[in-house]
Amino acid sequence: MYADRMLTKWVQDHKPRAAAMKDQPAFYRNLEQAMDLSRTDHSLFVAKPRWGDEVLDLTSSDFLSFSRSGRIREAFQEELARHENFRLSASGSRVQYGNYDYLLQIEQELADFHGAEAAYIAHSGYMANAGTVAAVPLPGDAIVYDEAVHASTHEGMKLSLASHQLSFRHNDADSLLEVLSSLKESHPAFVSGKSSILIAVESLYSMDGDLCPLDELVQVAKELFPLGNAQFIIDEAHSNGVLGPRGAGLVNMLGLEKEIAIRIHMCSKALGSTGGIVLCNKTIRDRLISNARFAIYSGAPSFPMVASMRAGYRLLENGEAEKGMEQIQNSVKHFLKTITAHPVWEEAVDEGILNIPLAEDYESIEHLTHIVPVLTRPKHELYLFFHLMINNINAYPISFPVVPKGKSRVRLVFHAHNGLDQAETLANVICEWAQEMLDIEAGKTENVMPSAARQVFAMKT
Ligand SMILES: Cc1ncc(COP(=O)(O)O)c(C=O)c1O
């Protein structure tokens, strides 16, 4: 059973190692010692064994099931067959030999699909995001970012020449207004338009599953900076394929194509493919080619990679996203309906055993997203993860520092392949765990830890 393999490996990976390395070179021992700190409190990131389709998947990024169904593979093979004499490698960076016709043609097709002037393909979404945030701002400029943005944006900020980097409260237009106003008041160059501000947000936040109030944020920026020197960069990793017309994303859904300077789309999630896309105008594209280190000092994306991206977009063009989006909506609704109607739900929420922020008013939410966080007390996310795993359900625990302290959770990611029966099983298994926790709290048992956690911690490997 998958749970045995997974949990055995988890236990092995968390055993401290440095003490047994006395005779090894200090170089490696020092590294093991550093990792031991996280091993001891069970917070080390470890590679997980791959699971089969028989495990309930509440984790993978195959949101639309393009990968597991083989649809992306078929579209990819068709794309390869259309270009049987392809040259596999780009054989150079964009500023050298690597700027081949197919790559340019697909970039224009992607730009057209999303209603953008231009597009630029990067090896991954991470690189597209980090590289663009690093390359675009000039000295004297500012980057203002939502406090919940992804690691790739932070990486870009570290490398950027921007003179100011300020965060605003998550999804809070008033907080954005305060931060932008403070920049305006303290630096005349932002008033005269001589310096610019890049505002970094995500369309759908990957930890909370909430949507960015983009309309509102854009209004704030436009009113404060009528000269157009405050512009947005939006990471559409989690909305690509699952939001908007034909899965084109949040900006297309809101009709804000003309208002958003830079959109980063990822093909590694819903499309079941790989690669990142920067949607922008020609000025930004030229700035990337002339200034982004990933464009200048790295070989351009290879033909197979670009063909796999094209294949994913063919599926979107053919309306394949809509079917999956509807299935996801149905499963998420059914899950929320089942869990909130469960006899243990209210008590578990009142006692702080678990909570799902969206659950209260889910019926009035127009677009339920495929990400549903189940908030727990610190450390309990691990207990819930073990409980789900032992019940053949894969949903990962997320702890500090990936989420702020006190915001531990198990993150549920719904897919087109999660039917209503799976949604129901999931809700019931979570509530079974909540009941166990309530019993422990009420002293109805001698145990201080729930059964799945006891089982895992007792494992000898
Ligand atoms: C919000 C966000 N941005 C960027 C990335 C990176 O995308 P990619 O997998 O294409 O590198 C991820 C992937 O985990 C993500 O969740």
From TrEMBL:
Matches recorded under Gene3D superfamilies: Aspartate Aminotransferase, domain 1, Type I PLP-dependent aspartate aminotransferase-like (Major domain)
Segments forming domain Aminotransferase class I/classII large: 54-423
Similarity section: Belongs to the class-II pyridoxal-phosphate-dependent aminotransferase family. BioF subfamily.
Pfam families attached to this UniProt entry: Aminotran_1_2
Entry cofactors: pyridoxal 5'-phosphate
Keyword annotations: Aminotransferase, Pyridoxal phosphate, Transferase
Protein name as annotated: Aminotransferase class I and II protein
Keyword Flavoprotein: no
GO biological process terms held by the UniProt record: biotin biosynthetic process
GO molecular function: pyridoxal phosphate binding; transaminase activity
UniProt organism field: Coleophoma cylindrospora
